[in-house]
Amino acid sequence: MTVGTPDNLASSTRGGVGQSPRRPDGTRKVTGQFAYSSDLWHDDMLWGVTLRSPHPHARIRSIDIGAALATSGVYAVLTHEDVPGIKYYGLEENDQPVLAVDTVRYQGEAVALVAADHPETARRAMHEIVVNYEVLDPLTDPVRAALDPEAPALHEHGNVVRHQPVRVGDVPSARSRADVVVTGEYEIGMQDQAFLGPESGLAVPGEDGGVDLYVATQWMHTDLREIAPCLGLPEEKVRMTLSGVGGAFGAREDLSMQVHAAMLAMHTGRPIKIVYNREESFYGHVHRHPAKMRYEHGATADGRIVYATARIVLDGGAYASSTTNVVGNAASLGVGPYIVPNVEIDAYGVYTNNPPCGAMRGFGAVQACYAYESQMDKLARELELHPLDVRRINAIHQGAAIATGQVVDTPAPMREMIDRLRDAPLPEAVDSGDVRNLPGGVSNTTHGEGVRRGIGYGVGLKNICFSEGFDDYSTARVRLEVVGGEPAVLVHTAAAEVGQGLVTLQGQIARTELGVERVSIAPADTQVGDAGSSSASRQSYMTGGAVKRACEAVRDRLFQLAAERFDVPADQLSLSGGKLVSEHSGVLVALADLLGDEAIEETREFHHRPTTGMDPVTGQGDTHTQLALCIHRAVVDVDVELGLLKVVDLTAVQDVGTVLNRVSLEGQIHGGTAQGLGLAVMEEIQLADGKLANPSFTDYLIPTILDMPPMRLDILERADPNAPYGLRGAGEPSTLSSTPAIAAAIRDATGLQIDRVPVRPHDIVHPVTG
Amino acid sequence: MSDKHTITVTVNGHVYTDDCEARMTLADFLRRQCGLTGTHLGCEHGVCGACTVFLDDVAVRSCLTFAVQADGARISTVEGLAEGDELNTLQKSFQEHHGLQCGFCTPGMLICATELLRDNPNPTETEVREGISGVLCRCTGYDGIVKSVMAAADSQRDGVSESGSIS
């Protein structure tokens, strides 16, 4: 038997790769024992709160902390003058102040901190801080920020964080060969990740002058690289432990309360707890970049795309966060999973005085996908083709190139996926006599006379893992020893379990590779090497790869040990059911007997294959490690009189390379689809002159169970030979394709353009025409 | 600071007597005074439902209930669902059918589903969806949650009890 190859996954150790064992954190999560970052408590702790700017753009003339500091029960009031180290941080650029220095650039920007012995005391004192602002006009139009040289510069180096062109072939001459041309201007609103567990954590001052941080985050080592310089501490004096994470979806890739709590802890010598409430959470993390996109596609009469142009403007808000990479994704995936011989894309990410935008599930690719898929539907109408046919005619496949010139060198079964979706059964008509079945449910005041049903499709292409030449890696430490007479494995990484089930998968991999059922996952902390971020659908690939590699190293040492002791060739050994097996002599020895008191521990890094950057002029390059496809069909009932709608059915086909854990995988596709549904029909942070109008769950709506229809999934396994076990990252692709599919279904039902998401009732009842 | 009130509540069978301010929510009382942090605060304005608990057998939002309103009441939280060291049928089912990912909504889901199955042991899928529609989940797309509740209803009907000791 060989261990851990895709061929024999299902037959390996119980609870191994390919099976769906229970989550190791499941018992604690269903009994209320699992400690989220907001549950942390220290008997000596103080409560920290953050004063935030009420203005999207202002100069700070002065800050008077006297009255706040004099409040009984207050231990500290801190401003930028108290930042012990460098005053700025950022994921990609150090442009965001820990606390505003002389300017605030968005509403909600952190200005001062208070620590007190009671959260209400801290809040009361916070209101005693007097900040004298000189209010400035906010720059809120991202297109103006991108293209108008007269627009005021919000940062020293101007307002354009990144402009990435893509140039392929000769668009002007291709235009003359096009039989049909379709154009569109598309807009996507600002979506919030809306994880349920607000930002929170505990900072405990250390006796060595350092600090211990217990926080909910996505990438501890990059947090550490940002936090330590701000605190004026070497990285080894900032010790981070992951506490329970109540969802992430990109919003925890940037810092929130980490430096603030640490500053207060170092200043007061007391543990500090900071917990945002929901309103503060809306101000306290980055959002998905809103986008304005102008597209043009030309095709021949037989449906072949001959060229595409796109101008994509992504609003990064006040600070850079991950805007650089969001632009890279939007540009490189700007025409999607289609073969387009002539391309001109200009993708911009800009600074404005809107809230900062950064990572959210599918970033950059989500925005472009809505636009290019809307274009595919326009092409289909012009060409009088079925929407699936125009997509099928132009579909990428293994051996074809995407817009960057990168040849897809692993399976890309888009045509097969389209054909499977075409054959999926459609839902039956609903009983409109039951008002609950109508769009709007019981709030629908009609008898459904205005209800029309539409069907729409969407295909998305997402890069998996970090792109553009980033040396992306993860680290795992695996220890095998005998505990209580049984072999047991301990897996230790810094990878963030944010709900996705990585802890389950780490155990599965260890069981498969070492043939041992008893596996524990150590708490994630910075006492082991960098695991990279729980983002970009990368942790199964990267940390999964690192755990696999560390297990292989442990296994090699076991085989050597056995080879010496039993005088058998090491390459004829395998592990199964806690025993060492020789190809010729059968069971040699139980692991427990072989190991005795000895522990075998190995630490390994896993790097994915290298990628290149994008050429700054042409955008060309092999920039992505892996690409993943998902395709959705949506069926939507629209009440054209009331502007209400109901998504009746969603069917998805996704290629995942290899299924490592089916229930976990399905949960990712369902959850990703639901967030795409939210973006299509309800989720938007509404801004007026840079100010948030709806920072609450009463006014920022996310899908309830009644908004989310039952789903059908068709999961393909076309293994990627470059990836561990042949897997393909699966967290994000469904978030891309569900939005345009739902928008297309609304278009089909109403005949309207639907060139903006989320679709609001007045977009249906009073559409802007022209 | 405002005047303190002394209240007595019975939570999961244990009697707690403590002082609290009039403005203190039941959620904060449970989390801070009783140390029962299984009741989660996702929005603190009554929308997300993660803080749902039983107040005298009725599921309520503990973030919208003042602690003083609960004086003398019997409260059950997620920590009180297990039967000794044994997970109850719903808890097992959420494990088995992947009814959670990050798990932050899970306490609210479990309490609402408990009330639903108590009042309607044979729910249709539509009734399950309606019964737990007051709790938001951001991770799962709800599919695993519906499966979990339906399967728990099946198990309760069949009197099937799988092993699921707390370890």
From TrEMBL, chain A:
Stretches assigned to the Aldehyde oxidase/xanthine dehydrogenase a/b hammerhead domain: 31-137
Top-level lineage group: Bacteria
Molecular function GO labels: iron ion binding; oxidoreductase activity
Positions of the UniProt region annotated as Disordered: 1-29
Database matches in PANTHER family: XANTHINE DEHYDROGENASE, XANTHINE DEHYDROGENASE SUBUNIT D-RELATED
The protein's name in its UniProt record: Xanthine dehydrogenase, molybdenum binding subunit apoprotein
Organism from which the protein derives: Haloechinothrix alba
TrEMBL record, chain B:
Metabolic or biological pathway, per its Swiss-Prot or TrEMBL entry: Alkaloid degradation; nicotine degradation
Keyword Lipid metabolism attributed: no
Keywords recorded for this protein, A-Z: 2Fe-2S, Iron, Iron-sulfur, Metal-binding, Oxidoreductase
Gene3D superfamilies, per database record: 3.10.20.30, [2Fe-2S]-binding domain
Ranges for domain 2Fe-2S ferredoxin-type: 5-81
Keyword match Protein biosynthesis: no
GO molecular function ontology, one term from the record: oxidoreductase activity
InterPro entries for this protein: 2Fe-2S-bd, 2Fe-2S-bd_dom_sf, 2Fe-2S_ferredoxin-like_sf, 2Fe-2S_ferredoxin-type, 2Fe2S_fd_BS, Beta-grasp_dom_sf, Diverse_Oxidoreductases
Name the UniProt record assigns to this protein: Carbon-monoxide dehydrogenase small subunit
Originating organism: Haloechinothrix alba
